[in-house]
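Schema walk-through. Below, the input block comes first and the output block second. Nothing else is stored per chain. Lengths vary across the set, and this one has 228 residues.
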Amino acid sequence: MLTPKQQELLSFIQTRLEEGGVSPSFEEMKDALDLRSKSGIHRLINALEERGFIRRLPNRARALEVLKLPDAMHRAPAPVIAPQPKVVSPVQPPMLPTAANDVIEIPLHGRIAAGVPIEAMEGHAMLSVPAALLGAGDHYALEVSGDSMMEAGILDGDFALIQRTETAREGQIVVALIDEAEATLKYFRREGAKVRLDPANAAYEPQIYDPRQVRIQGKLAGLLRRYN
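--- output ---
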């Protein structure tokens, strides 16, 4: 069962694919659905993907494939907003999918330690992120402070892009909240009945906790580097 906005977006994507063979950009989808930001489109795309109605084609930033349509759309297609007409020369070659610089905004929740744990999950700023860096799910960003993850390529001042989750697999880089007070970015591992948070810098020691002290708040999905 799709929401009206999910069905409207699916119909719009299907129409554009049938007309030109190219999926619309996030900006076009935002305008078509009369939304204020691309983050709303990103959530709708994730929902459609999770329900198996569309999929993203690999290695192409602007490429979506419609896998199926809901029964209601087969019986009576939902109205869609037609794209602006284009003047096409009779000898113009077919349009090919091109890379798009679609960006979305995700919450920037302050700083997180890649070293001694510090506070995270504060602040209400937004960070613009290329949509191609993020997959399905809900995401937020944290600014990295410290050098304990430098051997994993995570440097002081980088922006860690985090997918919200409360579980983690062995060896994943996670945001771990310690004693409901401090958060840190580390490799997640288990050591017997304990939880071990490993740095990626030989100058730092692993941190070992009782599992009741540690709450997973997300896993690393990507990284943005700020160049001066």
